[in-house]
Amino acid sequence: MENNRFCVIMCGGVGSRFWPYSRKAMPKQFIDFLGTGRSLLQLTVDRLEGIVPLQNIIILTNEQYASIVRDQLPEIKPEQILLEPVLRNTAPCNAWAAWHIKALNPKAKIMVAPSDHLIIKLNDFKDSVIRAFEFLENNDAIVTLGVKPNRPETGYGYIQEGKNVDEYFSMVKTFTEKPTKEVANLFLESGEFFWNSGMFFWGVDTIINAMRTYAPEIAEIFDHANLFYGSPQEQEFIDENYASCPNISIDYAIMEKSQNVYVQKVDFGWSDLGTWGSVFDNAPKNRDGNVTPNTRVLAFESNNNVIAAQNDKLVVVSGLNGYIVADTPDALLIVPKNDEQKIKNYVNEAKTHFGDKYL
Amino acid sequence: MENNRFCVIMCGGVGSRFWPYSRKAMPKQFIDFLGTGRSLLQLTVDRLEGIVPLQNIIILTNEQYASIVRDQLPEIKPEQILLEPVLRNTAPCNAWAAWHIKALNPKAKIMVAPSDHLIIKLNDFKDSVIRAFEFLENNDAIVTLGVKPNRPETGYGYIQEGKNVDEYFSMVKTFTEKPTKEVANLFLESGEFFWNSGMFFWGVDTIINAMRTYAPEIAEIFDHANLFYGSPQEQEFIDENYASCPNISIDYAIMEKSQNVYVQKVDFGWSDLGTWGSVFDNAPKNRDGNVTPNTRVLAFESNNNVIAAQNDKLVVVSGLNGYIVADTPDALLIVPKNDEQKIKNYVNEAKTHFGDKYL
After folding, report:
1. Got the DSSP string for B317-337?
2. Helix B90-104 and helix B204-214: axis angle, to 10°?
3. What share of chain B in percent tops pLDDT 70?
4. Pick from A27, B179, B219, B330: most CB atoms within 10 A?
5. Could you read off the pLDDT of A59-99 as tens digits, one per residue?
6. What is the pTM of this model?
7. Closest approach of chain A CAs to the CA of B358, in angstroms?
8. How many residue pairs bridge chain A and chain B with CB atoms within 8 Å of each other?
9. With 80 as the cut, is the pLDDT of residue B34 above it?
10. Chain B interface, mutation test: which of A330, A334, A344, A345, most B Cβ atoms within 10 Å?
11. With an 8 Å Cβ cutoff, are B314 and A327 in contact?
12. What average pLDDT score do residues A146-175 get?
């Protein structure tokens, strides 16, 4: 294994699409949706085995999740967990990680990975990651992973490939936001567009230079702390200064502006597992077509449901088809799979009526 | 209030039609189905206010429910709670109650009431009870309450009236078991048949004599203990001998055989509340037609459901119509109201798979 390889796992996200399973206090990345016995975060770390040394994994999360991260990843040392005092999107957290890692190893090559995605084909994933790291050896590049689309998905961003480098790599022509159905269909037909997996690779100097060029107001803050990285003053400095970073995504701050951005076209069974429906699509189904991760279910004349409950709870369903049933100790959701985009509204409604109690 | 008036509340029943709310350890009579803040048992006691002195109320229950009864009825003294060591149906428990009460007051007139029924029109109920007690003053009689039927219900037993005594009372011609739909229709059309409410009235000597005549094997046991009633030996005697009583209902042992059985025709909004559907029929409905006893529900495009959860749990339902949703900490049931008769089968299935864990 290359000791210069690092991986930054972004683990500070919140979201309500998996309510009531995901909560402000326990977001999606910490939950074992598929019933594998490992949370999405744990699976993300597991996938790096043999590619990135354990001591080179950096977890970026919000300080309110520190104890969850420590509990779920006992193999990660406390000093590998960087705690953001406030939410500031992905540009500031990647800047912090880069400056922090540079102090550890100025030759570092960094992979950035979300903590809440699903990857099915582990070997293909590992090949792709190694290929990206190797590409960085010979190129002052930012590498993205673009997933070959199999449907006109409107829930993902897309990367359009430009000039080919070789069989796997191309220059990036454009990044696009989530498209309409019509546009997504055009993207799929064209063959030029790939799902933006949110995974990036860069050399530590490449990203720091890019920050200095395209996001100087961020770079300035982290350049200020050069004496502190790796010392007890680092967290103190962050606690005092992190909030003054602009709230901006790495895509917008860097990726869309840099000239040396490449896409590696990959196909490793990726899903951002953004909704209960995608859990249904990706998880193993029972004989009756229900998905029941880690849950004791007796289903009678009931098919194509996602049924999730906790702690050995028994769920008996009868005559229920195509629903999401998600049960937690203090909240139960029953909603047709087709209406899952409304879950956010329901959560807002719950907030209106009951404040933060169920969030 | 008449100090000779007693009420025996039968409170030992078990049943699975209200699973997962009702459990072996917490049967239906102890649950607040209607969200009134009082369990069915508590409502049964409340209804006697002003008719039967509190100290003349006798609760008959299984010893496993002793602490629930004490918790729910702190106004009832421990010596008013008779604890059956084993289940032996309604003839033995009514025999015990009769012999026990005779030792307290040989002139007692006894009302027997189930603990798990619903009565809506409280004043009409009280009038009927007083009328029955008064009837016993002048008649060596067993009085049943027959509820005027409003539909061809197949879930109830029926009482056929015979010769009229007066506006309210008739002799009983027959008791019948739960009829088929066709028979229930005939019953309704005839005007001669009334729902058997399971409430009975008798003088203490009347019932003891009837026992000696029609159920001598039971009478013999309780006659044996005449020196013990009211003493510490009473429970000891019961613990040793109760199991040798035949497992037989009061209807079969006494009512169907006695010659002096009367029916008072009543109409006080009675339901035996035997199913979730009857809870739906009897409980107040929200604007959207859902019944949500004691439960925080946000319902979107969802109507005509019974939704019950506990402890401030929030239930969010969407696109659900005509279902029973019954949630407890360790079990959740979702079943169409029309299939509620299958709940027993589901509970048996749960037993097959998981033993007693969820019963």
Report:
1. EES-BSEEEEEETTEEEEEEG
2. 140
3. 100
4. A27
5. 999 999 999 999 999 999 999 999 999 988 999 999 999 99
6. 0.80
7. 8
8. 104
9. no
10. A334
11. no
12. 94
